[in-house]
Amino acid sequence: MLIMPTVTIEETTAEAVAAKLLEIQAIKLNVTHPFTWSSGWKSPIYCDNRLALSYPEIRNYIKQSLAHVIRKNYPEVQVIAGVATAGIPHGALVADLLGIPFVYVRPKAKDHGMGNMIEGKIDPGKKAVLVEDLVSTGGSSLKAAQAMREAGFDVIGMAAIFTYGFDISEKAFEQARVPLVCLSNFSFLILEAVYKSYVDENQIEHLKSWRVDPANWR
Q1: pLDDT digits 0-9 by tens, 147-160
Q2: CB atoms within 10 A of CB 188
Q3: How crowded is residue 139: how many other Cβ atoms within 10 Å of its Cβ?
């Protein structure tokens, strides 16, 4: 009987990663003046993990944590693939630490030159793990995983810094048979935000209601 892969959270890093991302404002929270995502969704949360690259201590912590969960969950990994754009630098750092090859996946094939969607050496049959900075609905992440598979790589999983944990995302990863492990998620973020007084307890229900139905939240 086939056991479908699940989305898992690395609990040894979840609290610390949430705290560090809030500290440097890589994750911002604003219930009264929500952000607008490119999808048009209104959100009380905005996440930009690229900011972590500008803080050496936090950058190194994330690099080491990603390397740890990849070794732990995907010990047979042979290639790291960064997902454009924000997953590319984090993926390159992890590949360097692990001492294995690195490639990256564009959102679409180039319209000039070789027309590549994957940059780096294509090595069919190699076991690959993709690295993402953020998983929301999972659409762009799984598109990259599919491109890797079409190029002949054996995609054994994905590692991400943070996930909102939407139901639609978890179902998509299960359907695509791509295991996902994340350093932190929405639940740990909210706990840390309340503990450090980034939000008060009266705002928690608004944040939780957004998490349940982000497309229709106002």
Answers
A1: 999 999 999 999 99
A2: 22
A3: 13
